[in-house]
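Researcher: Good morning. I'm working through a list of sequences from a screen, and I'd like to move beyond sequence-only analysis. For each chain I'm collecting a predicted structure so we can compare shapes side by side. This is the next one on the list. No need for commentary yet; just the structure.
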Amino acid sequence: MLGYEDDELDNHISTWKILVHPDDKARVLQAVNDYIDGRKHCFEVEMRMLHREGHTIVVLSRAFLTADNSSNKPLRLVGTHVDITVRKHAENYSKDTAKILEMIAIGRPADSIYDAIAQMYEVRHPDMRCSMLELEGDHLLHGGVPSMPEEYCKAINGLKIGPGVGSCGTSTYTGERCLDLLAQPIEMGKNCYAVCTPELNQRVEYSFQFEH
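Model: Good morning. Structure tokens for this chain:
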């Protein structure tokens, strides 16, 4: 589950402390102590753990306490870890989508909605950055660009679309998806992928761009 073989990890609490996400460590240790001290009747907690390859997974941990028969002194926790990363991503995606729909319904400014959409996709794909651009006439304008470098923002705002003008300029010009493996200098990345979104009249109004 974490990318390690059984003989690569010591069966000790110090191993767990290394692998659990730093922001979750205190909360989970408190849950363990509450269960051992009898303040909680069961132990079930969700936490993030660090995979060998560097990314984070979400784990559901359930355990029960074993104790010495004569003294009733706690000996160890025995339980299971289940990878629930996919489920948590789906839950978070649903929550984020509902939040964005609420922002639209109550009339929040368009730029804040664009930023929320871009950030939602960046959370789902941590190695990617997303920008949302509006098309006014034949020029691209800022929509939501929460994580792109300033150089990109300056270069892309007001850019005239056309064939060969990066992935976003090409996509909005042709009305088709575009993958630019040799990204133009304005796009600040190696692999750029753009998707345009036409309105019902087939006129392109927006462009989503992802950089990897």
